[in-house]
Amino acid sequence: MHRKSSELKRDKMFLKGREYGEAIHLADKDDLKGSVSFYAIIKLKVGEEIGYHQHVGEKELFHFLEGQGEVNDNGQMLHVFPGDVVMTPADGWHAFKNTGAGDFVFTALIVRSEK
């Protein structure tokens, strides 16, 4: 399979009715059969944030590509930069805030926990 950048699905993201950025889906649901439920690039503009939330029964891996930000990973505040990786464990909580002067861009991969 090959998809050009122009063919990738793009969504505005919302949490509790509030828009907070854009998701560029690197794979769609039909591609992600199995333990992976979400794989996308997330873009937060200056000042945007994703509030503290939990993925029950899932863990999430983040790879930071551009900009800088703060991540609250289960109550631990982390300052992240391009190249950094954070993994929130199954049933963990996390939040993100763009603290830089440009876009804060990272990949997000959500994996269902083993039972």
What are its keywords?
single chain; 115 residues; mainly beta; 6-stranded antiparallel beta sheet; globular
Low-confidence runs: none
Beta-strand content estimate? over 45%
Succession of helices and strands: EEEEEEEEEE
Question: Can you give the helix content as a percent range?
Answer: under 10%
> Counting H and I runs of at least 4 residues, what is the number of helices?
0
Largest sheet data: 6 strands, antiparallel
Tally of strands = 10
**Mean pLDDT reading:** 89
Widest sheet: strand ordering: 1-2-3-10-5-8
Structural class estimated from helices and strands: mainly beta
- Indicate the radius of gyration in whole angstroms: 14 Å
The rough form would be described as globular
Distance between the termini: 31 Å
Give structural notes.
- The chain is mainly beta.
- It is 0% helix and 58% strand.
- It has a 6-stranded antiparallel beta sheet with strand order 1-2-3-10-5-8, with no helix packed on it. A 4-stranded antiparallel beta sheet has the order 4-9-6-7, with no helix packed on it.
Topology:
Layout: E1 10-15, E2 18-25, E3 36-44, E4 49-54, E5 58-66, E6 69-73, E7 76-80, E8 85-88, E9 93-98, E10 104-112
Antiparallel strand pairs: 1-2, 2-3, 3-10, 4-9, 5-8, 5-10, 6-7, 6-9
